Amino acid sequence: MAASNVVFAFVLTLGAGFFALNVQRLVRYMRLGYAENRIDHPLVRLKNVLTIGIGQRKIFRDPIPGAMHATIFWGFLVLTAGTVEILIQGVFSGFSYARILPHPLYALYAASQDAFALFVLAAIAFAYYRRLVLHPRRLDGDNLEHADAYIILGLIGGLMVTLLLANACQFLVDPASIGPEKFVSRGIAAAIAPIDAYPSTPATVFWWLHVLIVLTFLNYLPYSKHLHVVTSLINVFFSNTSGPPQKGVMRFMDLEADVEQFGASDVEHLSWKNLLDGYSCTECGRCTAACPANLTGKLLSPRKIVINTRQRLMEKGPVVTGDRMEFLHPALLHGEGGDAGAQTPAQVMEHRLLDTYISEEELWQCTSCRACVQECPVSIDQLDIINQMRRYLVLSESRFPEEIQPAFESLERNGSPWAFSPADRAKWSEGMEIPTMAELMERGERPDVLFWVGCMGSFDDRAKKITVAFARILKACGINFAILGQEEHCHGDPARRMGNEYLYQMLAKDTVETLNRYDVTTIVTSCPHCFHQLGNEFPQFGGNYEVVHHSTYIERLLQENRVPLQSAEGKRLTVAYHDSCYLGRYNDIYDAPRETLRRALPVVTLVEPPRSRDRGLCCGAGGGRMFMEERVGKRINVERTEELLATGADTIAVACPFCMTMINDGVKAKEADVAVLDIAEVVAGQLQS
Amino acid sequence: MKIAVCIKRTPDSESRFKIAASSAAIDEAGLKFDIDDFASYAVEVALQLNEKQGPGETVVYAVGPDVVQETLRKAMSMGADRAVQLKTDAVPYDGLAVAKALAAELESGGYDLVLFGKHAFDTSAGIVGTATAELLGVPCVTAASKLDIAGGKGTARRELEGAAEIVEFPLPAVVTIDEGIARPRYPSLKGIMAAKKKPLETKPAQLGPVRVTVKSMELPAERAPGRIIGEGAAAVPELVRLLQTEAKVL
Fold first, then answer.
1. CB-based contact (8 Å) between A254 and chain B?
2. With a cut of 0.90, is the ipTM above it?
3. Which of A336, A364, A449, A549 is the most interior residue, by most CB within 10 Å?
4. How far is Cα A87 from Cα A121, in angstroms, rounded to an integer?
5. CATH tag, A567-685
6. Do A408 and B32 touch (CB under 8 A)?
């Protein structure tokens, strides 16, 4: 072993060792979060890694930067094989994969190295162009953030250049060592030859430069947002945002638990996975660019929530874990909002994630629409952090916008977020001869389906028309159904979304008790919030039912030709369907409402706004926003209505009573002559009279 | 400061009321009960005064059967320190009888201030607070919309028809609280959990003689449904005619 091999082995050990120390440090911080099991359903998780991670599925949602990133990422995977070869060469000169691989495979490997080095260089050039010339808004950040990106791009570019130059020089020194597959290297060699026909020193220099950049890059990562190079595949594996289990389900919370506090006000009240999310964020801003609150000029930025979580962990981690490597964590991990600037450990302990980094105002601006979660290429769950912090605000400090207190109180007293008398719950059904579960029970009968009407559908004047329309369809199809009548009350979803888990659990447990008492198996509802809550979150309390949203239910009836529709074609309608978040992003139901419209209206033209399906813009009512004033920025419902009106539709179709209210208000605000109808109303309008 | 707040458990005002078969009471089936709105303002005022003035004690009292314990816990979840239930089988209608039970209990309590709601939603009588003050022999201010305590003296604002008056009084005193004085806080889960462990004492109520009782109740006559006469300017003559001949308002 030559002296240079020994020196290299020493440098390599130093570089790898320092990196290992940093990994250990970051893992120690991450473990400040509470424990939770994230290895259930390993096959689904593996599939997510393959599709979202390796396949870059979500990256391509933004196609041009997506192609750029995928090239660099795939290039990385391919070139890492080459890096390993080079590192082994450093210790054992003369090592080559040629010795262990059959020739065709080696030739393919060698060609892939040169080809991807070229692709990556092109992608890096585009990345610089994008950052320096195009300035996409979602990449806005402070100077440090931009510097970080330039450094990383520079290092990757440097890796490619030194690799190719080292190979080219090596070819001139020893033509047998670089095969014809490394076509780029040989091409460069041809250009170098006239200048230096035997560049043995440059060959050594470029080789060393290459390995030094590899080690620098590795050790720069823990201080950079580019830590995602290490963490993102791991994060995708542990994430639940694309399932498992059901998407968008809020965490179960044990209210009897002997805990210091309820909900999260600082990093140690979040799960280790929330903290890993922080390590995985590359600040690409796709979440914030899709956030309805942020788009309409409000403070909330999901990207900031995640960056703040990481910043706070970097501030508090060293102090509480007794880190002796204080010098190892300069404020390179930075980002939106900046560091809170604590000088002493005591100041660090005075700070917390809530208030110091994330304000109450931001948290209450969230509509829980899940657009941020949907967009994140590395499956970060921004909403999970927001929800846990809202729980803290309400359960531990009773801090919330004062407009929602009446909703809480009314839920407690009247079983609905609005102060209507529970006695009037089934008033819409008067004269329709719809039996209640209790009446059927008395007669010893059982319906096939329970129609869960929901609070909007029971009390809101506009939504009651949807309820009646849907009930008419059910009757026209001869469905044997019943309602709970006065025994129905809110399942608590609005309280849960607004952080009031205590009130939610009271209402939810009571509802489960009622439903189980009647042995309910199948539920149909016209409200996506009820649909999500009853179907996806009630299993947490022993409520297991088959819950169907009315869009799916009506579509099935239409498919089976059970709906007695008029034969007349009527006039041609141009309809724009507005996707409900809780139907779409929470439950992947996009086609049923559209298909229902197509089948019910023989001469319909369906038009789509630019943001539709899983990119659909929220109406602004979710996450309890229905009960709060929207004082900052443009109104979300107006923004959404403008998009829908711009399609030129004469009818806007919705499938959610909350969306109905918001879009209706938007249409009124724009003084537009457009009808807003629920899909059930569209179908009911086509029934034979 | 040592403050007592006397609270009542009443049905939610949004309820649809029915008269019970006895025709002298409302039918309580299906009604949701909670702390009376005015009483909850009084609890909030007491908590704010003690928060502002430093160490003190807020004690809540309620007369009634065991269900009032739930109401007392609610007040403690808002922040009251302890509670006393003066147990009876039912809350008598006669406010003086209730006031006697409260006064007998409060007399030896050493309170600087005793707060009540202006009146309770169910009877709207407003007797208990004033009668208790009389029985205790302390000054009474009714329907305070603002209350300040300083140097053993109280200052209260009272809203009048088209005016307001500021009154002064020495402590100890009884004050009944009007709406709008303070927004009652929403109990946090932390508060609810803490309230479960706070002391709640139950004693027999020494009610005075019940001399006033409800003989019968009746609901207001149902309003006749509205009528649509027509639309636009064409309907105006008919509207004017009906307003003159039927409604007789023109």
1. no
2. no
3. A549
4. 22
5. 3.40.50.1860
6. no
